[in-house]
Amino acid sequence: MDESFIHNLHSIVLNHMADENFGSSNLSSRLGLSTSQTLRKVKAATSKSVNQYIRDIRLTEAATLIKETEYTSAEIAYKVGFSSPSYFNKTFRKHYGITPGTYKVEEAIQKGNYFVIDSVKAHESAPIQKKSTRRNMIFVGSILVLLVATMSFYTYENRENNIISKTSGTIINDKSIAILPFKNLSNNRENQYFADGIMEVILNHLTSIKELKVISRTSMEQYRETTKSIPQIAEELGVSYLLEGSVQKNKDKIRIITQLIDAKNDKHVSSTDIIKDYKDFFELQSTIAIQISQELNVELSEAERYQIEKKPTNSLEAYNLYLKGAHFMRNGLLKKGIPYFEKAIEKDPEFAYAYSELGMTYAILVAQGILFHDDYIIKSKELAQKAIALDSNLGQPHHQFASILYRHDYNWKAAENKFSIAFKIEPKNPFTYLLYAKFLHCTSRIEESREQLDKALRINPTYYGSYFFSAYYYYCLGNYKKALSENQKGLDIMFKSEEGNWLNFNIYIAQNQFDTAVIELQKLHNKKESAELGTIYKQFGITGVYNWLIKSNSKKENYNTSYYLAQQYAFLGEHEKALEQLEKSFEMRISSLASISRDPYFNNLRSNRRFKKILQKMDLDD
């Protein structure tokens, strides 16, 4: 029976060799078994876990391809299901004790093929790990796995590393989790950036695990000082587990305390108290993420574990600067974060995350109209390209590049290609789904846009920005009741929001409810301006209000002003002036112009020759 089962198993894996995502769940469906049955049967028949068994077949096939073909190491990596050639090389070397290049050289020597030997000379100097060492490592690893499995039901204390972990032994099936903002226990209040940074890194580690559903950081920010109960938070987020944490940083020591909670039943699952040297900072974050995955009964793939354990930089000083920059960026102080990202890059010129975040900061500031020059668009592209070159496993720079390509270059095809890459690398990033939904909306692919927006909301159910765009989506369709409802959801989360109030103003204007619209507009201005608006509305009606807006906007230093003026002139029926501002917006490559084909303000201009010409230049005329 075992021979027949193994033969079937081997055939299935070979048939899906190039599929990097093929794992235990896929194998189970092909075998017609449950995941737990598959795990048990494979273990019994092969003495290996499913992931280990699949990996070993991939590596055996890779060795065959090295012997019998002239494919490069990178080409073989992709053919046997490794998306990262560097990770393939590392795994191959760990399995065979030598690199793929050295393996090829040894085969060539046996065959007397000196052309091949010369072509891979660079690999001859790679250190060779003795097979006996590898066998010992496997033996030790097996013992360790057995010990971990046994101790998961008891209290485990490692005094040498100052790690204390307590587990209840709860059996977990639903693998959805949210992380509450970590508390800063340090005497220095400014160390909150450090606690936030650790929380976000652990969250990102967990998000990279395919089996887990993880709520994004932005959805969790509203619970920083919450008085809501654990079950109430879990119900709002649609998760079964919550992780609470606190961080204490003292000179060269770091302490992290975490508690995993069965949120629906408000029961403790496990807790961890770790004290480490600051130099072990990255190991500490990885340890916590791996422990949580174990508690949630998740079997990590080799690639997932590699990604979690990978260091983003070898410079702790650079990483600390990066965390400060990220802290300011996440709290809306984008300009304040720029020098920290720049200093982080100075400390470590190979720090991909710092390049990516700096590029994203520039892209956001340009989209908001705060930075005015093409130079910043060029900088943002260059930084994204640098980040991608340094770390091909980062999704954010591809997402960022896509934003620039469609909002400023109007290169829709290239932007869509970048989106597809970003999704492949980070399939659970809600912000990529949201941005892609906006992209699709700009190109009038309305149903697709809604599908992507709904995905963003499922992953990140309490992010105000998704509800604001959902409201805009319905506003453009003329479904004003639904638009107001969605906008209110966003305002309930983000009470003070210019975006939300502006949108309400536009929705009421579209319904000719001018009294209510003016009230929304007054919320966006100070007491003096608000009173002035009220007076103007009484005397001159809504026309006076729009003339006031034109006068006010003309004085502002914002790169998007031309587009706003075009909207206001279009409302007043001054079409020539509106078209002049739209043509100016095109020449300046204003990001807001990307939504021109859907903007209700321009409904009366769509048949105009000059308007059509703008759409044609933007490749939006079809």
**Compute the gyration radius: what is it?**
28 Å
Strand segment count: 8
Silhouette? globular
User: Which structural class best describes the helix and strand composition?
Assistant: alpha/beta
- Helix fraction, binned, reads 55-70%
> So how many helices?
30
* Contiguous uncertain segments of 5+ residues: 112-173
* Beta-strand residue fraction: 5-15%
Largest sheet: 8 strands, mixed
Write the layout of secondary structure elements.
Elements: H1 2-15, H2 24-31, H3 35-46, H4 50-68, H5 73-79, H6 85-96, H7 100-111, H8 114-119, H9 131-151, E1 156-158, E2 163-167, E3 176-179, E4 183-184, H10 192-207, E5 213-214, H11 217-220, H12 230-237, E6 241-250, E7 253-262, E8 267-277, H13 281-295, H14 302-309, H15 316-330, H16 334-347, H17 352-367, H18 374-390, H19 396-407, H20 412-425, H21 430-442, H22 446-459, H23 464-477, H24 480-493, H25 498-510, H26 514-522, H27 527-555, H28 561-571, H29 575-588, H30 609-617
Parallel strand pairs: 3-5, 3-6, 4-6
Antiparallel strand pairs: 1-2, 2-8, 6-7, 7-8
Can you describe this structure?
There is one protein chain. The chain has 622 residues and is α/β, with parallel strands linked by helices. Helices cover 63% and strands 8% of the residues. It contains 30 helices and 8 strands. Strands 1, 2, 3, 4, 5, 6, 7 and 8 form an 8-stranded mixed beta sheet that branches. Strand 7 and strand 8 form a beta hairpin. Helix 16 (334-347) packs antiparallel against helix 17 (352-367). It is globular. The model is unreliable at 112-173 (pLDDT under 50).
